[in-house]
Here is the input.
Amino acid sequence: MELADRYASIEQIVLRRDLTGLFHCKTTDCPNAVLLDGTLQELEGQGAVFDCGVCHKKYCVRCDSDLHEGFSCKQYQEWRKENAQGDDLFEEMFTKGILRKCKCGKPIEKSGGCNQITCSCG
Here is the structure.
């Protein structure tokens, strides 16, 4: 892609952000966007689903996130809030020595005793 084409593409993205009712695909590098007709409440009755015709990923328009089939937006947001720190807490367990990585990459919990740890990989 030439530099001029890249700037034109960036300019189009900036202009699109100023349009009300335009939903952009959240997939990295996917250029797709659609102009939503009606209000979110009208769309909510249809599931508020954005089905990208380019990358084929589905998103919830109402809460602007991945599609959460079987759960309301409120339930999904509550779950995200409760689990937001999961990755940080998992990494902290490695830092504190509670978990260690085997040569195969699996985490192993040290629950007591000596420093000898055996993984299921052998």
About this structure: The chain is about 35% helix and 15% strand. The first helix runs from residue 3 to 17. Residues 17 and 101 are 44 Å apart (CA to CA). Confidence is low (pLDDT under 50) at residues 39-43.
